[in-house]
């Protein structure tokens, strides 16, 4: 083979290897369907060493849970496939993932609380980490998809999922399943929108063939937002939804404000003091049986607009606009829901109004 052809071949293989390594989806054995050998288990407790679960390194009291397994009177259900893991006191699972230095990524994982009421989860990819409380149940199934994001500081990221709890029962800890990765591309403002990612098209990995959406935790627990350009400025999470499973006003993604005034999204935009702007957006419902009177409160600096929406829980939306004069070079745009709402077909599942297609434009003087 000629040297030039050999070089091209090597470059092609290297390029193919890199692109193959960064396909969005489950990480290696991310659904834990590949389990320990029978000799590496004592009941459900993994006893076969730190590498007993393929592709993962474990530490502490880790259990390999089969769907339908009982714990006292509680039936443990696995959301995807047949197996999950449970992290006991100070237990952790770890995996090294090939990434591209300098790029942003989002981790999505399924989490369920078991017997402890104040369970938390520590997710870290050095030097970033976040402690995410999971005592609030957003769905009646007990499982919630949670997103966490990070900036790659090298070409290999070490993902650690750790239970920092200390319970009387060492087996009392969160269940983990379906760990997935998605590359995030930071959006930029355009001449059609001063806000970035106003349609929420850029966001965390959403599991296909599921109707859960993804919870984006508050920014106080996450140094990088899984919803690029937006912050979750509240005590509770917001839900990221897709058009394959929900009603979305525009495009393929939107945000559902699921926890009343405790669930808010915000972005700071560059503005010119004294100039007039219009903030336009869509308010609707996700077609998930979230019925009743809803109000979305929109803020632009010191100006506010309350948009009522009567939901029948079957999809639909209306548009609204807030005209304001900027008073500073930075204007905070924020949305929240006035009320808490529960699904009419499931009083254990939180829901709320949907916000989408958010645009901020300046008005020319007549």
UniProtKB/TrEMBL annotation:
<feature type="signal peptide">
    <location>
        <begin position="1"/>
        <end position="21"/>
    </location>
</feature>
<dbReference type="GO" id="GO:0009505">
    <property type="term" value="C:plant-type cell wall"/>
</dbReference>
<dbReference type="InterPro" id="IPR052437">
    <property type="entry name" value="Pectin_Meth_Modulator"/>
</dbReference>
<dbReference type="InterPro" id="IPR006946">
    <property type="entry name" value="DGR2-like_dom"/>
</dbReference>
<keyword id="KW-0325">Glycoprotein</keyword>
<keyword id="KW-0732">Signal</keyword>
<feature type="domain" description="DUF642">
    <location>
        <begin position="194"/>
        <end position="360"/>
    </location>
</feature>
<feature type="domain" description="DUF642">
    <location>
        <begin position="25"/>
        <end position="182"/>
    </location>
</feature>
<keyword id="KW-0134">Cell wall</keyword>
<dbReference type="InterPro" id="IPR008979">
    <property type="entry name" value="Galactose-bd-like_sf"/>
</dbReference>
<keyword id="KW-0964">Secreted</keyword>
<dbReference type="Pfam" id="PF04862">
    <property type="entry name" value="DUF642"/>
</dbReference>
<protein>
    <recommendedName>
        <fullName>DUF642 domain-containing protein</fullName>
    </recommendedName>
</protein>
